[in-house]
Amino acid sequence: MTPEPIHDIAHLAHVELLTDKPAESLDFFVNILGLTESGREGDSIYLRAWDDYEFHTLKLTAASRTGVGHIAYRATSEQALARRVAAIEKLGAGIGWVGGDLGHGRAYRFHDPDRHVFEIYFDTRKYTPPPGERPALKNQAQRNHGRGCAVRRLDHVNLLARDVAAIREFLPAALGSRVTEQIVLDSGAVAGCWLTVNNKTYDIAYTRDFTNSEGRFHHVTYAVDQREHVLEAADIFLENGVFIETGPHKHAVQQTFFLYVYEPAGNRVEVANAGARLILDPDWQPVTWTETERKKGQAWGLKTIESFHTHGTPPVASDH
Amino acid sequence: MTPEPIHDIAHLAHVELLTDKPAESLDFFVNILGLTESGREGDSIYLRAWDDYEFHTLKLTAASRTGVGHIAYRATSEQALARRVAAIEKLGAGIGWVGGDLGHGRAYRFHDPDRHVFEIYFDTRKYTPPPGERPALKNQAQRNHGRGCAVRRLDHVNLLARDVAAIREFLPAALGSRVTEQIVLDSGAVAGCWLTVNNKTYDIAYTRDFTNSEGRFHHVTYAVDQREHVLEAADIFLENGVFIETGPHKHAVQQTFFLYVYEPAGNRVEVANAGARLILDPDWQPVTWTETERKKGQAWGLKTIESFHTHGTPPVASDH
Amino acid sequence: MTPEPIHDIAHLAHVELLTDKPAESLDFFVNILGLTESGREGDSIYLRAWDDYEFHTLKLTAASRTGVGHIAYRATSEQALARRVAAIEKLGAGIGWVGGDLGHGRAYRFHDPDRHVFEIYFDTRKYTPPPGERPALKNQAQRNHGRGCAVRRLDHVNLLARDVAAIREFLPAALGSRVTEQIVLDSGAVAGCWLTVNNKTYDIAYTRDFTNSEGRFHHVTYAVDQREHVLEAADIFLENGVFIETGPHKHAVQQTFFLYVYEPAGNRVEVANAGARLILDPDWQPVTWTETERKKGQAWGLKTIESFHTHGTPPVASDH
Amino acid sequence: MTPEPIHDIAHLAHVELLTDKPAESLDFFVNILGLTESGREGDSIYLRAWDDYEFHTLKLTAASRTGVGHIAYRATSEQALARRVAAIEKLGAGIGWVGGDLGHGRAYRFHDPDRHVFEIYFDTRKYTPPPGERPALKNQAQRNHGRGCAVRRLDHVNLLARDVAAIREFLPAALGSRVTEQIVLDSGAVAGCWLTVNNKTYDIAYTRDFTNSEGRFHHVTYAVDQREHVLEAADIFLENGVFIETGPHKHAVQQTFFLYVYEPAGNRVEVANAGARLILDPDWQPVTWTETERKKGQAWGLKTIESFHTHGTPPVASDH
């Protein structure tokens, strides 16, 4: 019999983003993207979308550089967390336990093969809305305040890596992630890989870093309920002078309806909608796109914009 | 430590619906709802939505009565299936193994406390599109043919039961389902209960059968990608003379954007969109709606239509 | 040869609404509906939607009662205005010239047969956005600020009248309006009438006032670009505790996708979308709905809510 | 006093399109775009969208070349038609009366300065739906059959011209059209001009033909009710192998949400949505875009695709 799927990790929990323009970045995330601040500590501000159930999904940290601080996943139970820690230690990728912060209890940190820092935890702090933020419908974390793009929840993160094939081996072993789609070039190199720990079609994606830098960040994505909300987000970005890199359009890979912008410090942010698409099949076979297929561009023919392959944070010399 | 969540069942797989007007029902499901026929055997026609990955999600069977034949869930592995069979047998609810049909291999059948027939299986037949149905994007089961409402995938089923509280105990024990929302009346009676085995907010719902009949069916739901598609479905139903019972509107419970119609034999069918809402929290606590809260009607104030509480299939004397 | 269509009046220009809760009404129109204040004078505040080209489309006036102050149309030219004044004086409906206000120059006032006050003018003050309100695209009056429902432009007004048949004669004679749709009861009484001066399917509607009061107001409507925006408005109203009377749903008459709420003083306000529907035919024949046809409810079967027939402003004893 | 606006022409009525692949073109227009055939005569097939009120809005004519046969406008009355004929004859642009065809009575033909053939008429044949095409709502020309893109109505036509400035003088004089937007290059040359005879923001556009050919065609556009329908059209084109040139995206000029494809014979076809945007102002001043402004690309930053400036029908040597 084939080995059983692993369900130890529940979901992508939060992303720590570094900014060297903290005031401008905060204004973007709160007033334009529409996140809500739930707390501050040290150089960090904790932010969340109106239907994120935890204390935060974005930890915005003032720093001397941009890019990602760490990526966090929440385990399905303490027992599951212990199993993952054991697996990661066996892989030799562990960093060790940290005490947690405003948003959650103790967490276990590790590196992916590209030196991005991850953490996993179970003990969390769920968001309790203050009076003015209580939703009209009790099955929602916070009222939909309608501010800016008013994104609903964290969706996924996209990282750059020198060796995506190594990631493709590592994450399933470390977290129990499944590869749902990938791009394999004619040379056999893996140019992109999309993985998930649950029924979302992906919660993390890696694309190849052609600069050979390590630990870089491509984008973080928040989900909206409808494709029309992505179009409205485009109008909001336009009216607020936010740089729109590409979109709205529909990806061929994963079929996500996307829109990419840069927040003031240069980190790429996506607003996206996946429609009703989910991976329900427990033995889903990865969809592999060839180099020829990817040359067709996005779903409706839009050519992939050059900066999508070159711009990451922190920027490096060869970035555009 | 609290017990760990169970992940033995992957998803709701298909529903067998009985019709005493097979030709009219088939025309509805194919040309108006937009399903595609994948096979026929005996009195049954196998149907699926364009992004359903299995051979079928609806088995439409000509019969002398309406209502539901059986409800099927797919397990996450053979091992998980064996665990569920053991659990169900321990509950004394088992019927036994059946050999499968055109759509899947052997399956284990059981009764819920209201005598609805369920089956669980792992061995399935995945849909392979014939040349004319091949999708432009290879990460999709079949081309989106755009016929009728062109629903994307099976979403959930809703059954009637005399004792919903009994169901609320049974399904988590049998399938590892989680209760995500429920309605508890002032009397303590459970008027409705929504459960899921995965990250969908629910794949099955039970509402109280006030006629005290057993084994009755409330509705089956197919998902579309956008709320606008539900509105378009309303226009399609209108133009085709399909009886619209209620909607489009947004449910308070689960926030689903809904539209209910009756197919020609009287079985209720829903076209729905859930937006980006998912249950990602591994220790999600059930949301309990009180009688007073439910008297407010649906999310935007629409009063729940009387027939929603009374019409089920097969009809009984006290039905309207 | 048949007489030529009249094009002397360009469009519905603004509505003066009376409120006995001016602070609460202002908060509703600015922060929830999403209008912008362009000026104040005396007891009135001038408001407009972000793509209204004139200084204002809503004049909100503090008063001891609710309902409508006056309704204004803009003429296509000074010559056209003079022709209309002559026609109205011939009808014996004239009140006389007034000097205008913050929003426009001199205007000619008259009564409709139900004693609502109208005015027509040509000389107007076009909106010039201050720096913070300049749009990114210069073909738009003001930036789309995204505040509240962020409605785009004034759409139409609906008044109550004891004798709708009299209105149906009067408005075409006074303004050159065309009747596009109407409801004629089995008794021959006209229960509703929709008229337009341009290619919009209607800019004014009258429905019968069963209380036999005069000069009452039914609702004012602002248009949004998409049906999805009406659904979003419903969520915004829900979260802000605004009373939703009925909708979102699609009218059978005129096919407008509608949502009705009461602003804090009790005046009914609609957020609506007409899709791409226009009256382009220069010899369009009025569509007449019978009593039987109207008993089918709205387009998708929603029964017309009772208060829609009874609630007007100012309220009268027999109102609900 | 300034001269009064002219209202002699009601609307763009139909476009005759030439195809050298008549069977393939017909399949595209009927089964993919979703028009309905209302008649045939000679080499022509008459087609219309489901809410077009006339017998046809597209006359598809088999020919040895592609491009446009003629463009027709309907007058507001017989008297108005006579006035326009007199004006056109005075301009020296007249061709003379023709007897009409299946779709309308006698029409007056003339040339624009780029030698495109136009006709104007008042006497028309309104569409009467056969039993199977009767709409559920009587205020609609035909049932919304939901076939293909199921476009609602003809929207506008775009022609190429060597001298757009000459057109900008001619059409207002000939038809009473108003210039609503234009692109004026730094050289003073007019690169594009958008005109309307009614409240639509434009019913015809001209863009500069850099090949110096005459009488060429750029595209014809059908309107859908919602932006989401444009996105769905993109999926339909994708699944049917139709070449998508560019879009969906939002134009900066006129803000139209657009999608361009080539029908099998190479004529460009647009599916578009204008939201609630109308030109209601009777003294609207043309919006003039500079060369610098237009270099910013479309509303959300999409660069205008090269072929948009070069591909016209019939193709000429310098076309791409």
From TrEMBL, chains A, B, C, D:
Keywords: Repeat
A single GO molecular function term of this UniProt record: catechol 2,3-dioxygenase activity
Segment forming the signal sequence: none
Occurrences of domain VOC (ranges): 11-123, 153-274
PANTHER family linked to this entry: GLYOXALASE FAMILY PROTEIN, METAPYROCATECHASE
Descriptive protein name: Catechol 2,3-dioxygenase
Species per Swiss-Prot/TrEMBL record: Ancylobacter defluvii
